[in-house]
Task: structure prediction
Amino acid sequence: MRNEQSDHLRKLLKASHLYCKAKGEISYRKIAKAFDQNYANYGKRLIEESKLQGIITFEYKYHPPRLAGLEYALVQTFSALRDAIVTPSTEDYEFQRRLWGEAAAEYFDKEIALPKTKVGLSGGNTLYEMIAALPEKDRDIILYPTAIIGRGPTVAHVDPIANVTLLWAKSGRKADRAHYVTVLPFEKGQLVQDVRKEYKQFLKRAKVQAVLEEMKSLDAVVTSLGPANASAEYMKYTHSTTLGLLKEMGITKEKLLAMGAVGDICYCYLKEDGSTSPDLDFFLTLGRETLVEMASKYPHKKVVVIAGKHKMDPLRAVLKGRLCSVLITDELTAEELVRNFK
Result:
């Protein structure tokens, strides 16, 4: 049953919607006119009451300062780097990841989200932080994963399909602007060679083949890295790495390290010098060669890597192998990279 209290609440919600939709850039007079009132003070009272009742809240975001000296040093040290963003370091890794996310979001909307750009996203918590920091608005971009991952029966990782879907939802939800196909999850005890046979069967399907081919023509990739030898400290802040998938096939951390892997970029495992080998091919991915071409051969394309001290081994491999053209990191990581570059 309607009453004066519920009618007033509906007015507050309507006024709040107008205010938030305009991100506060709307006059009180315009809000008042939506209620057939001519006085700006009427709209002001509705908004102030909405704030007092918590209907309108303020979202506090971080805007970390950039350390220009270290950014310049990184670009001068690593020949494939065309740009670097360095934030201050913090002992709290979750906070650090949030700072990278804010810095990456600003860079993304300014330098990557250009009309008709084909963007590839990896999985992971770091990419999730960037997407969480992005405002909702129409973006004329086309999204793809950088790897096609099978998952089940539970979720323990933010996969590429999740990040692609979340960014699509924040960018206008336009038809045909996000692409993904699914494959079967690994089965416990399944052999690597059997998985590779399955992939050959998947690639006979037109939709799988089409997405994989489109992934190789991306204009930009935004990714973090996965360490093969994750520290106990790092594992406090993440539920699972790609090793959680590989263990189904008997690929342990020790076995992976024995094979020469130091970590992965876009689910493609690399050796210390940034190279890879067929025995490290576990997933349907964008592939190392495509990343090298994007980062080193085509000036208009970008491979943006976001990583810090817990991923130092794969980060060095990516820089040595010229797989990264834009690096987003923190002060201590940047200093170590420059100081110990060989």
